[in-house]
Predict the 3D structure of the following.
Amino acid sequence: MVTDVINVDAEFEVARKPLWDLLMDPQTYARMFPGIGVCERAETSDIHPVLLFRGGSAAISITAPPIRLVVGKETETFELQCPGLGSFVTVRLRGAAEADRTRVTVTYFGAGRIHSAIAEYDNADVVTWTHAALDRVADAINGAPTSVLVNGEDSTVGHQVGTLKQMMTTGVLRTYRPDRAFKQMGGLAKWGFTLAGGYAAAAGHSPKRLALADEYAAYSFADIHARSHRLASALAMFGIGARDKVGLLSRNRVAMVECMVATGKLGVDTVLLNTGLSARQIEDVADRHGLSAVFLDDEFEPLIHYIAAEVPRFSTGRISAAQRNTVDDLIALDAPTFTKPAQPGKLIVLTSGTSGTPKSAQRPQPKGFHTVAALLSRIPMRMDETMLIPSPLFHTWGLAALQISTAIRAGVVLPERFDAEDCLRLIDRHKVTTLIVVPLMVHRILELPTHIRDRYDTSSLRVVASCGAPLAGTTVQRFLDTYGDILYNVYGSTEVSWATIADPVDLRAAPTTAGRPPLGTKLAVLDQDLRPVPRGVTGRIFVSNHMLFDGYTDATPPTESGGMLDTGDLGYLDVEGRLFVAGRDDEMIISGGENVFPRPVEEALSYLPQVSEVAVVGVPDPEYGQRLAAFVVTREGFGLDRDMVCNYIRHRLSRFSVPRDVTFLDALPRNATGKILKRTLIQPG
């Protein structure tokens, strides 16, 4: 049991002023003190800053009462006071101002009163914890290269053992029927670890199990394997073959998946066209790739207006209003079987284009079971369950989930469009266990009135996996409190596939975290000279795994360092090994000489009950060089004005974070995957 008074003494080879500056910054406590997931300033009229702490462990969540930061003598003493409990911490720094050595004395009084869990520790635990945290602070000042994490990647044997263990635990490689296991491996041996191989393997093991369902059709694994084979034969009869490229412009539906599987079997590369692109952008993509054919939903006819008339068009709909052959028509032709190519076709995904022209990224073929093991090491999906994928399949995340579904033989339900209430209806109807979403979908579900959400039984859900954009901290907390600890936040990109995954334990402790690297992943935060920065210090996020993309077909690849790719994002690792993404490299602004990021302002504003959605961007400023501008969507029936927004941020963040401009909108501009198109907010109208 901790006593009422605990003294800790430490000495560091650092100057007093930088140590003082870090201890005055609330972010330091969440980044470098073990067990603290969140430390933020509260909005208050108190003359002393008030800090809100939250943290804990996998076993317990701790929320501390509001704590005042009271400075005694500048650069020498301060206290963290909890007046209501009669508890406080005094910190004293001693050492000549110009010397590179500082002695730190920390005195705790009544630490056990903060929370019963703290009272259970003993004095030695508190001393050890304090030393570890102060060591991290000193590391940050001295530039210790500690921001590198490896999960199995540096040890080939360790990685393989981890993969095998994960496959056996999940059941991917466990069967009570050797004949089915033989057929399963035969499918993979013939078609590789591709979508085609996944459906062939699942057809060999569980031929009658439901594989895909949409509003109009439902097919087993054997059905998809056979139908895609006939579709590939029909395309070969039309003269489409290995190393040709076709475009696929479709909403989520069974026919879209059948196209991807068939072209993979035929050795044809498929360009997954984003439904949010303009006709001119699609023309540009088609010209760059020299498309031999286009598959599309009839509703997207205007988007292919500029593609050459001689390029064949096929319909992914049930009936084509344009009198074109549909996927079903091609399958019904029963054409002579095709010759298996030397190499399977590739899938080409377009980057989101939120910061400019979308680039074409070649997705790699999965390398054995490592891909499945990586995601399953952080997301507990199980065999033979049901997955709902409203996230677009032309997006890396939706596509990755589809690929994983074949390995775990999940029946996949595909809605053409996302509607929050319809999503809940489908979960209830199909007893969905895994929901694959982008953050906007999580937000839209929570925005439904409670009486509508309560109409549907969602108790079957065990996993809600979100990817594609940051999840706001307030959204994370609301979802966990509403639906339980089933939310997983995946951070990655088209280029690196995945980087980190935050599970519910991570999100409870630190709602804005991007999580930890899954199996077979290496992550580092590097400075401009490509050297690792200290834990808690912001730098460029680099990632390595076996699913790094095969390069752009039409652009210079990202910067590489030690086999790791630059994600284009800035962020930091905290003392617990959790990654936090500050924002895109090109989103950071320099205002009055200070580096300022939009995301902390967005996070802060999202906690206002009046705010439904918010985006913050950098704009030119004649006095400071750059300032932030906020674009806010308010909830219906709530009032908010510029002064309220600015005063709120002024009390919570630095003065450079206060928006120069606040604009109220009915909605934020978004692309087809729900990402906010920030560049359109500041383009001249």
